[in-house]
Amino acid sequence: MISNKIQDAINDQINAELWSAYLYLSMSMNFEAQGRSGIANWFKIQFQEEQDHAQIFINYLNQRGGRVLLKAIDAVPTEWSTPLDAFKATLQHEQKVTSLINALYTLAEQEHDYATRDRLNWFVGEQVEEEDNCRQLIDKFSLIGDNGMGLYMLDQELAARTYAAPSPLAAE
Ligand code: FEO
C-alpha cells in the first residue's frame, strides 16, 4: 500500500504532467498557425512525451494499490510570437517541473517510501535531459536571430524529430 500523502502528491504530479502536455500541444498549434511546421512537430512530440510521463505515474500508483484521481487541467497560454519566446518559456516551465520532482523526492524520503524514491530517479534524469534540450534550442535560435535561411534550416531540423516512448515504464 501507499500512504495517502504520497498518493495525493503523485496525483498532483499526474495533473502537472498533463498540464505540461496541454501546454506543449498549445505551443504546437501556435506554430502550426504560423506555418512553422517543424517547430509544431517538435512540440507535438513533446506533448506525447508529457502524456507518457503522466502514464508512468499512473502505472506506478496502480501497481502500488493506490487510486488515480484525475483533476481539472487549468487553461494554458495560447500565443508565442517567436520560437525563441516559446523555448524560453519551455525552459522556465521545465525548471519548475524539476523543482516539483525534487519536492516529491524529498517527501518520499521523509515518508521512508523507497519504492517511490526509486521510481522518481527516472524522472530526475529525464529532467536533466529536458532542460538540456531546451537550452540547446535556445542557443540555436539566439544565434540565428532573424535570419530567414537559418530559421528555415532549423525548422527543417525540428521537423525530423520522431516520437519514441521515453521509457518502457510508460507502456499501459
Ligand atoms: Fe514531464 Fe517535461 O517534464
What do these coordinates show?
The protein starts with a helix and ends in a 13-residue tail after the last helix. Helix 1 runs antiparallel to helix 2 (37-63) and helix 2 (37-63) packs parallel to helix 5. It has helices spanning 4-33, 37-63, 83-110, 114-144, 148-159. The chain is built from 5 helices and no strands. It has one domain: Ferritin, core subunit, four-helix bundle (Ferritin). Helices cover 74% and strands 0% of the residues. The longest helix has 31 residues, at 114-144. The radius of gyration is 17 Å and the shape is elongated. By secondary structure, it is an all-alpha fold. The structure holds MU-OXO-diiron. MU-OXO-diiron is lined by residues 17, 20, 50, 53, 94, 97, 130. MU-OXO-diiron (FEO) binds at residues 17, 20, 50, 53, 94, 97, 130.
- Sheet/helix structural class: mainly alpha
CATH topology: Ferritin
Mean pLDDT: 97
- Morphology call: elongated
Number of DSSP strands?
Answer: 0
Provide keyphrases for this structure.
single chain, mainly alpha, Ferritin, elongated, binds MU-OXO-diiron
Give the helix/strand layout:
Layout: H1 4-33, H2 37-63, H3 83-110, H4 114-144, H5 148-159
The chain binds MU-OXO-diiron (FEO).
Residues 17, 20, 50, 53, 94, 97, 130 line the site of MU-OXO-diiron.
